[in-house]
Design brief:
Layout lengths: L9 H9 L13 H11 L9 H8 L11 H9 L6 H6 L4
Length: about 100
C-alpha cells in the first residue's frame, strides 16, 4: 500500500503508520510515543512501555530491555533496512 514520502520527519512517519498509511493533518498529529502506541494497538501488540523506543521494540517483538535497540536501530529492524536514519527507515514501511 502506502510508503512514506521523502523529507518527512520521524513524527510524521509514526503518525502515518498509526493512521493506517495516511498522513495526518497538523491538527490531528499526536506525539511520537502516542503514535507508536496507536501503531502497536493497530498491530494487536500490547505493551506496558510508554516511551517511543520501548513501544517500537515491543512492536518488533523484543522483550528484554537490556537488548533494546535505539531509535535508528529499531526503525531499521522494523523496516528490514540497515544504516538509515530513523525517519528514512520508517518511510520504507508499507502499510
Amino acid at each position: 500500500m502506502a510508503l512514506g514520502v521523502y523529507g518527512t520527519t520521524l513524527l510524521d512517519e509514526l503518525n502515518r503508520l498509526a493512521n493506517g498509511g495516511t498522513y495526518r493533518t497538523p491538527d490531528q498529529m499526536v506525539d511520537e510515543a502516542k503514535a507508536a502506541g496507536q501503531w502497536a494497538v493497530q498491530r494487536s501488540i500490547t505493551t506496558n512501555y510508554t516511551n517511543t523506543v520501548g513501544i517500537l521494540n515491543a512492536i518488533d517483538g523484543r522483550t528484554d530491555p537490556n537488548k533494546f535497540l535505539d531509535y535508528s536501530g529499531i526503525c531499521n529492524a522494523l523496516a528490514s533496512t540497515s544504516g538509515l536514519a530513523a525517519a528514512q527507515a520508517l518511510r520504507a514501511i508499507s502499510t
